[in-house]
Amino acid sequence: MDLKLLDALLDRAGEPPFRARQVWRWMAGGAASYAEMTDLPAPLRERLAEELPLSSLDLEREARARDGTQKALFRTADGKAVEAVLMRYRDARRSLCLSSQSGCPLTCTFCATGRMRFARNLTASEILDQALHFRRAEPVDHAVFMGMGEPMLNLDAVLEACQRLPSIGIAHRRTAISTVGWLPGIERLATEGPPVRVALSLHAADEALRSELMPVNDRYPLADVLAACRRWSERRRMAVFVEYLMLDGVNDRYEQALALARVLQPREAFKVNLIPYNPTDSGFEGSTRAAIDAFRAALEERGLRATVRLTRGREIDAACGQLAARVA
Ligand code: SAH
């Protein structure tokens, strides 16, 4: 729901300010219509139903994979594509993957979103409406900003959305903002905003290789980014999640694992998540399972915490940017 339009409508209707909070509580609890909001006066419910769409996003398509992963493609009121994913895990965790922008202005060479046209930043309401879409179907408890876009380039709206996620059931410590390493954003999160987690898309410990994969590394070199991550970790007393995409023959050799372990110091400040690559038409291939296991073992030998991400929703193109890129 467009929360700014809600405020304006309530104001025009001469309603007291607490009405907005009432409506939000219903939305956050998964209400699918104004009719359910029984503590609002009936005439107000009718007016809302006529004048304010329940979501700022229209659902264009939805796909569900055999493993329960569900991916939704939405359009904003001005026709921009937005995608979000719900991952269901056996331990009952329900994790949302949210988009912060339609498209992405950065140009990481392995990423499908990076190759589509950047449209614009999403509003806080458009971010929350992705979460509410899934919340209407079932409770959710984790969120990661790993959908389309670079959240640090739209940090005000992302933080505004994060403030409201706990009322949907997602605590701040179960919310992670994933970044290419946009330095000013990491610095801001150390001192400002709710205590959500930071995930760094690292992908290569070597500066030259990282710049090839992620041109943003020329602007904010990894060494500086890691220094900011250490400061964030000290201030917030949490480990930074490190995402490391496993690309066959590119960044998956034993020496590269050792180099990664060397830069991730102190090791308590970081937690590595190795990501099997979801193939796109970028020309990259994912590493073999054996290479991923060996890489993980090398990190663990050096005392780092490392896990391998479960691959979810592969047959529905659930990787970053894939569905939207296809229909765009
Ligand atoms: N811009 C932010 C958040 C969006 S991308 C960031 O880069 O962190 C979320 C994660 O998905 C990133 O770690 C990105 O590198 C990864 N990713 C991109 N394309 C992928 C693919 N095809 N398979 C697996 N992960 C991918």
How would you describe this structure to a colleague?
The protein is α/β, with parallel strands linked by helices and 328 residues long. It folds into 2 domains: 1-54, Orthogonal Bundle (DNA polymerase, domain 1); 56-316, TIM Barrel. It has 12 helices and 12 strands. The protein has helices spanning 3-12, 18-28, 42-51, 124-135, 155-168, 183-191, 207-213, 216-219, 222-236, 254-263, 289-301, 322-327, and strands at residues 57-64, 70-76, 81-88, 94-97, 101-102, 120-121, 142-145, 175-179, 197-201, 240-246, 270-276, 305-308. The chain has a 10-stranded mixed beta sheet with strand order 1-2-3-4-7-8-9-10-11-12. β3 (81-88) and β4 form a beta hairpin. α6 (183-191) runs parallel beside α9. The longest helix has 15 residues, at 222-236. It is elongated. The mean pLDDT is 95. Bound molecules: S-adenosyl-L-homocysteine.
